[in-house]
Amino acid sequence: MKMSKQFPLNALRVFEAAARLGSFTKAGEALGMTQTAVSYQIKLLEENVGEPLFLRRPRHVSLTEVGEQLAPKVTEAFEILKEAVASARGDTEATLLISSTATFASQWLAREIGTFQFAHPNIAVRLVANDAIVDFSKESVDVAIRSGKGDWPGLISHQLMRVEFTPMLSPALAETIGGVRTPADLLKLRIIDPRDPWWPLWFHAAGIADPDLAGRPANRLGAQAFEARAAVAGQGVAILMPGFYSDDVALGRLYQPFDLRSSDGHDYWLVYPHARRNTPKIRAFRDWIMGALGPDGLA
């Protein structure tokens, strides 16, 4: 039996693209093939496997149970092949594309990434900072920093730090009301982003069941880091992760009036596709960031 019949490499390549992109048309565009050619290669593979791999619907395809089992293994195999060819060519440089929430990127990663680059000079780093959830199947992102519970299907998740929050404000603003001595005193001041779900959680833990935040002017700055800058400027009280703002506290620009911290069960996680877990640049970044933050994350 010919090797091409035993191991339909081209059909597997087409299958990997179609499974990753969720479309025969998009797979064809990515591979420079017509949709008819893609369908033909998928049919050849299905005949080889002996089971249907896709459910065909008008304008939509989805993986069957067998296809779901096969797809991650095929993706991983192609990643291994790609790394092997790069190594054989003597390619020493690689680019690591990191997607991170804006706050984690600005308050920790951007300040520390230089140590990773120093330890791995052959890996170039690109950092994309926004709060959008990246789709690894459609974007060229290698790793992402996400806020959540770590239960994303198809992804490996490593907890980086526990998210705990508490009100913080500038000492000068606190002095405008004679100081903040009780949680209720905070309600005498402007609350930055009163619609933030962290606020009612913290007030409830502080013994204030109904802080009546809904009646306050709604404003949203888009990221915790921006709210912290507004708090430093004396524009109101922000609810923040104290560990991110130790420099501001040390310089007297912010302070934490109460020891009480709350959590909503969402923490910071490093995530990447299971199929790419053995990629050297991903392993290098994982080992570095886990070591840099330590077992307890950022205090």
From TrEMBL:
The keyword Transcription applies. It comes from the Bacteria. One of its GO terms (biological process) is DNA-templated transcription. Signal peptide: none annotated. Gene3D superfamilies: Periplasmic binding protein-like II (3.40.190.10), Winged helix-like DNA-binding domain superfamily/Winged helix DNA-binding domain (1.10.10.10). The keyword Transcription regulation applies. InterPro entries: LysR-type_TF_proteobact-type, LysR_HTH_N, LysR_subst-bd, WH-like_DNA-bd_sf, WH_DNA-bd_sf. GO terms for molecular function: DNA-binding transcription factor activity; sequence-specific DNA binding. Keywords: DNA-binding, Transcription, Transcription regulation. Residues 7-64 form the HTH lysR-type domain. Pfam families: HTH_1 (PF00126), LysR_substrate (PF03466). Belongs to the LysR transcriptional regulatory family. This is Glycine cleavage system transcriptional activator. It comes from Sinorhizobium sojae CCBAU 05684.
